Amino acid sequence: MKSIKRALVAALLAAGLSVAMAQAPEAAIRKNLSERLPQLPKIDEISKTPMTGIFEVRIGSDLFYTDAEADFLFQGNLMDIKLHRNLTEERLEKLLAIDFAALPLKDSFTVVRGNGKRKVAVFQDPNCPYCKRFERDLQKVDNVTIYMFLYPILGPDSSDKARNLWCAKDKSKAWQDWMLRNQAAAAASCDTAAVARNVEFGKQRKITGTPTLLFPDGTRVPGAIDAQQVEKYLAAAKQ
After folding, report:
1. pTM for the full model?
2. Is the peptide bond before 50 cis (omega within 30 degrees of 0)?
3. What is the count of structural domains for the chain?
């Protein structure tokens, strides 16, 4: 009986040692990086990667890679050659996914076509030429509600145009008059805190270009895609 107890204790001690050893690299990495790079921002997470001996260091939504002793630190794309997968890109997609239900819809205005059952949110700058091209294609998409977030990031004139559009009596009409017919909204003033919140929201979530589309299934699509591609993402979001 005593031998069984001793064996059990030994097994538990070994298990504890294994856990401690498994945790040791992460602790060492955190300690060494903080000592060697004191200017480095706070580390949010350290985790193993599929590549032997390489660890991911996450700071916000920025990903770095290091060895078990933190002797080297690099940034780039970690590729799984056998499976033809960009592991860094896949990780970032998860980190940057935006819950559609959590979008501040009160800071947007809507453009509704047909029955409006399908939904998409779009961040756009009124001075973005790609956004104007995108808007022309978007006219071909029916039965959709578009939540339009003004996102003036291209300069002071973008902010002025965004203010006039947000303060227009009919925001949807003013937006389409400008984007499709080049008819600028009349100068106006009102509370534009919503536009400022949009810019802050986008910066926090790394929305770096316009247009950027967000679908209900969490998919984020940067760039001026055409109507056929919009339809594909809308169909996928319903599944």
Report:
1. 0.72
2. no
3. 2
